[in-house]
């Protein structure tokens, strides 16, 4: 009976230690995700819209700044309209399809909008005050 009590007691202790590590790991991952999502240095216009000659690489998601497979490469002729609405910059093509670029604050979206206007010189621009 004492042996089974010790065994159960040590298993509970192990489970608590494991749970502590899992909670700590989840906290660290959450903190890193928030840093990458809301850190203003990740919304530098030259990092969000990368001019590659006839094409532009768009890091429209925070995780695209870590790995290029999450971004999109488009032709400069693809974009016919650029829209700024609050903290979103939207790139439209002729058929009405769009790519949204989200920034955590309006003041971070405005420089991205200006960069888009410089890259897509022939595109119509629209600013919507939200």
TrEMBL record:
Name the record gives this protein: DUF304 domain-containing protein
Transmembrane segments: 21-38
Organism: marine sediment metagenome
Keywords, in A-Z order: Membrane, Transmembrane, Transmembrane helix
Lineage summary: unclassified sequences, metagenomes, ecological metagenomes
């Amino acid at each position: 009976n004492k042996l089974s009590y010790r065994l159960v007691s040590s298993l509970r202790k192990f489970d608590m230690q494991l749970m502590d590590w899992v909670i700590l790991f989840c906290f660290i991952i959450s903190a890193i995700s928030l840093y990458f999502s809301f850190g203003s240095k990740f919304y530098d216009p030259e990092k969000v819209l990368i001019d590659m000659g006839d094409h532009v690489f768009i890091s429209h998601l925070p995780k695209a700044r870590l790995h290029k497979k999450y971004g999109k490469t488009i032709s400069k002729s693809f974009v016919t309209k650029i829209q700024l609405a609050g903290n979103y910059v939207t790139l439209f093509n002729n058929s009405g399809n769009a790519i949204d670029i989200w920034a955590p604050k309006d003041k971070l979206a405005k420089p991205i909008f200006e960069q888009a206007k410089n890259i897509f010189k022939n595109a119509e621009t629209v600013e919507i005050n939200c």
